[in-house]
Amino acid sequence: MPGRSELDKARAGDPRALARLLSLVEDESPQVRTVINELLPETGRARIVGLTGAPGVGKSTVTSALVGAFRAFGGRVAVLAVDPTSPFTGGALLGDRIRMQDHAVDDGVFIRSMASRGHLGGLAASTPQAIRVLDAAGFGLIIIETVGVGQAEVAIASLADSVVVLLAPGMGDAIQAAKAGILEVADLFVVNKADKPDAQQVVRDLRNMLALASRTEEDWKPPIVSTVAVRNEGIQELVSRLNQHWSWLNDTGELKNRRLARAREELAALAFAALRGRLAASRLDELAARVAEGALDPFQAAEELLSQ
Amino acid sequence: MPGRSELDKARAGDPRALARLLSLVEDESPQVRTVINELLPETGRARIVGLTGAPGVGKSTVTSALVGAFRAFGGRVAVLAVDPTSPFTGGALLGDRIRMQDHAVDDGVFIRSMASRGHLGGLAASTPQAIRVLDAAGFGLIIIETVGVGQAEVAIASLADSVVVLLAPGMGDAIQAAKAGILEVADLFVVNKADKPDAQQVVRDLRNMLALASRTEEDWKPPIVSTVAVRNEGIQELVSRLNQHWSWLNDTGELKNRRLARAREELAALAFAALRGRLAASRLDELAARVAEGALDPFQAAEELLSQ
C-alpha cells in the first residue's frame, strides 16, 4: 500500500506519484482497493468528458486542442487515453501520444495511456478507479479518449458526464457510427476535417439520423460542431457547447442520474469479477468440457457452477 | 416452446422455422434453453469461420464471395451478421445485406442479422446459441461476420474456429487493427482492395507486425491473402488457406482446445447473467447511490451485494 506521503503527493498532482497510483489501477493490484477507499472523500468534483470515434477521425488532435482551450481558463486537465493492449506492441501504441506533445511541458496537464490486460471488461472495471484517482488529485477536467469503435469503447465513453462522438468525412462517417452503436451515447457530435469536400454530407447524414430519434421536449438535443482541429478551427464552439451541456446536466439533475447509473454498472461489474474469482477453476473446466462435447447444455452447466 | 415439428422443420433447414428459432435466441427468450437442450445432440459438426474488420474494408463483399466459393463444393452455408442495435434504425442496418443478394434465391444459403438488445455482453451470450441452432440445422459452414472494431467484436470473432481479419488500404490499416487488438485473434489476414495503390504497404506493415509476435515452431503462422473481392480475385486462395487452417486445427487437436476455451467463456458469461438476474434490484440501487455519493467504496459495495 502506498504510504500517506505518496497519496499526498498524488493529491498535490505530483505526476510521478500519480503515475505510480495509475499503474496499480492498470495492473488491477489488490492495493487499489485501499487507495480508492482513502481517496474517496475527495472525489466527485471533476467534470468528465468522453471522446470516441473511429480510427483516423482525429481524436488526439481534437483532444489536444480541447486541452489547450480549457487550459486557457486556468484549470488543470487530465487525459486518459484508453487503448487495448496488443502483444504485437507490448502496450499502448505511441503514434497518437506524439501529437499530444504540445502539452508535454505544461504542469497543469497530465496525460496517461491505459491499456487492458487482455481480458474483456478489464478496462471497464479499471477506468472508473483511474478517474477517481485523477479526480482526487484535483484535476477539474478529465478527458477520456477511447481508441477504436465498438461496444466496449461505447461502454467506456459512457463513464463520462458528456460524451463527444467524433466523425470525419470518409473515415468513420455517420452510417458507420450508427453501426457501432455510438450515436445513442453522444451528447455532442464533432465533424472534424470540416475543410474536406465531403464534410457537409457527413453533417447532413448525421442531422437526418438524429431527426429519426425520438426525444421529448426536456431531452438534450445533441449539437453538431464542425472543426478543423489541426488549425484549431471550431474548438471554441466545441468548448461553448460542452459548457452548455454541463449547465444542462447540473440544472436538470441529470448529472446525478448519470453518476448513479454509472455506479450501478460499476457495482455489477465488480460483483461479477469477484464472483469469477471465487468460481473453482477445476469445476469450471470440467463443466466446460461437457458443454464442449455437447453432453450438457450451457444453461444447466451455469446453474451447476453457481450452485457451489 | 416451439413444437417438435417446428424443431424438425428447422433441422431440415426450413428458413422460416430457423428464423423463428433465431428470433427467440436474439430476444433472449426463456424458451431458448429448452430449444438448445433439444438440439444439443446434433451440434458440434459445423465449421465456424469468423470474419471481422473495420467499417469499409469490404466484409460483406468478401463474405459473399466466400459463400459462393464454398457453395461450389455443395455444402450448405449460413451467415450470421452480428450488429449492434441502434435506436436510430430500430435494428441492424440494411446496406450491407443488399450486397448479399447474389445468394438470395439459393436454398443452400441462409443469411441472418443478429442485433444486440442494447446491453454489452448480450450478443456474446446469444451468438453461441445462434451457432448451435444453425449447426443442428445442418449447415456445414457458418460464417460469423461482425460489424465494427472493438473488444466486443473481437470476443464475438473468437467464437469461430478460424478467425479472418480483413484490412484494406486507407481504412482499417494494420496499425488501426493493432489498436483494436484484433491482430492477435487472427488466423488469416485478408488485404482486400488489393488493386489500390497502398495495398502493398498494408501487406508490408502487417508482415512487420507479425514478425514481432513470438510464435513457436508448432504455432500456426497466419498467412496474408490479397483479394479484390468485388472481382472475385484471391478468393480461391483464401478458401485454400482456410482449408489448410481447418486441417491444422484437426491434426493438432487445437480445434478441441479452442472449443473447450469457448465453452469456458460461455459458461462464465451465463453464470454472470444468472447472478445478475438474482441480485435484488433495490439493493443494487441503494448501494449504487452510496457509491455515487462517495460514501462507500465500490469494492465494499460489491461485496455487500454478493453477501446477500
Structure, described:
In chain A, strands 3-2-4-1-5-6-7 form a seven-stranded parallel β-sheet, sandwiched between helices. The longest helix of chain A has 25 residues, at about 255-280. Chain A has helices at about 5-10, 15-25, 30-40, 60-70, 95-100, 120-135, 150-155, 175-180, 200-210, 235-250, 255-280, 280-290, 300-305; strands at about 45-55, 75-85, 110-115, 140-145, 160-165, 190, 225. The first copy, chain A, has about 300 residues and is α/β, with parallel strands linked by helices. The radius of gyration of chain A is 21 Å and the shape is globular. The first copy, chain A, has two domains: about 5-250, P-loop containing nucleotide triphosphate hydrolases (Rossmann fold, 3-Layer(aba) Sandwich); about 255-308. Chain A contains 13 helices and seven strands.
Key features of this structure:
homodimer, 308 residues, alpha/beta, Rossmann fold, 2 domains, 7-stranded parallel beta sheet, 49% helix, 13% strand, globular
Could you write a compact summary of the structure shown?
Two copies of one chain form a homodimer. Chain A is α/β, with parallel strands linked by helices and 308 residues long. Chain A is built from 13 helices and seven strands.
